[in-house]
Design goal:
single chain; two-stranded antiparallel sheet; 4 strands; two-stranded parallel ribbon; Growth Hormone, Chain: A; 73% helix; 467 residues; mainly alpha
Length: 467
Amino acid sequence: MNSPAISTGRPGSVIHEWHPEDLAFWARTGNRIANRNLAISIPALFLAFAVWMMFSAVAVNLPRVGFGFTTDQLFWLTALPGLSGATLRIFYSFVVPMFGGRRWTAIATASLLIPAVWLGIAVQDPSTPYWHFVVISVLCGLGGGNFASSMSNISFFYPKSQQGTALGMNAGLGNLGVSATQFVIPLVIVGAVFGPMAGGPQTTASGEALYLQNAGFIWVPFLVVCTLAAWFGMNDLHAARSSFQEQAVIFRRKHNWLMCWLYIGTFGSFIGFSAGFPMLIKTQFPGVDPLMYAFLGPLVGALSRSMGGWLSDRYGGAVLTFWVFALMIVAVFGVLHFLPGSAGGGNFVGFLACFMLLFVLSGIGNASTFRMIPVIFRTLHERSAEQMGEAGGTTALRQAGIESAAVIGFSSAIGAYGGFFIPKSYGTSIALTGGPALALYGFIIFYATCLVVTWWWYFRRGAEVPC
């Protein structure tokens, strides 16, 4: 336990031995190193979410500065980052054990400079063709992909008893980037934040000066700082190294697919509601300015994720997840009740309150499902290792860590498709029926299936893997 790699754990180095479940090791050096890596990971993930969701605040302003895009084209610009980010997460799920957490965090953070800078340049010329914005929108998905690798990396650093809190903090504070981009961009585009070096203003039809380039440029200095901090301040864990073949075993694990299903219900709801909330307000309550409320849902959802991690460590992930889905069903019925309809114009205060509850519950569920994953796979591998002796037990625990990290990353990829499908389901429902009720009833049915899955496999007495 006293190898130089363990005793130093210096920033930027490879740690060749890592035993977070060893209490003496954890108290002596593990806790300090893990917390330093988490402290750098959080702002990097925060910026990733901010870049991922840039178009949720940018698209509505493009027509104001002379871009003649149709409403459907603008909807696609807000939806494409969700689609590309979810797809990229599939690949990002497996890269940390192959490349190292420090290296990949630095590379992935630096890659976000591409869409941020390109957007800042593209918006300054109203003749910029639509396909440029489509490519930028797809590249914003790089930010969505970062979540899978970030969560996978942090899961290796902490003992099982603290993974819920650590992952909840990483994801919860990182998720604040969604709220930040919807809050910050409307503020920075009204003034010359960077002076003349960032370009002149664009003029709206009413004569207002907007600096829409700041929507991309505002993140650039922070991305540079976080890239350098990751490269020089984080660590690569040799114990976390594995090939794709070792990780790919999760595709044969039933519980991988079950947890993917549950994570669609939690994170898929969070990111999908975040992307679709402003447009839903605009279509259902035309007299309300959606930009005044758009950031609130992602804000409370992100903060509740950190709380959910702590609650999961204290009470268990399955019990929390079960009640999350039960209450989400109730909250969706509340949204339906307060929507405008044939009987009247609806009630915005009630609608907003029910949606805030949905955001809070989805945030808590994000943390509780991620708390369940390492417990599930550690339990399964401990059972298989009971007759294998000490050496077999060590191997089983290592494989449990590898599979847990891969499932965390892969389930985050599947869940992220909610960022695309939830806004599109609103649009489809409105096109077919004139309102979003059909989509909301679909959510209720889906949450009911999540409730049954959680109860049967993880929560009931005699469940296959209580967690």
